[in-house]
Amino acid sequence: MQNPSKQQIDTILKSAKTIAVVGLSDKPERTSYQVAKVMQEAGYRIIPVNPNASEILSEKTVASLDEIDEHVDIVNVFRRSEFLPEVARDFLKMDADVFWAQLGLFNEEAYELLKDSHPVIMDKCIKVAYREMEH
Questions:
Q1: If pLDDT is split at 50, 70 and 90, which confidence band does 135 have?
Q2: Residue 40 — left, alpha, or beta (φ > 0 → left; ψ -120 to 50 → alpha)?
Q3: Which run of H or of E encompasses 38?
Q4: Reduced to 3 states, what is the DSSP secondary structure of residue 98?
């Protein structure tokens, strides 16, 4: 598995406007919440994907990716690695550009499903990549 180059990732982040966050927790102490909050404060629109909450970060949640009926630039995933193939299959059914699995998450099957049709980033924190980006 090979992530895009830093330059490619910078380009993705600069052009993106909407990030669907799969597994976004409504608990402020959780990493997913903290990362999504930073990205929201940086100007990205966050779509929380969490079947157990109605609103996170002042945004209405959806239970799953298939409830999103608009274009999404990045799907940022905070689910355990074994769930990534399932999320990847849902990703393929929607209008989205980039599949991004957070730091510590990697799944070869999910990568194989997506690599020929979409940019795939795995085991990398979007917040760290954003902060390292040359603005």
A1: low
A2: alpha
A3: helix 31-41
A4: strand
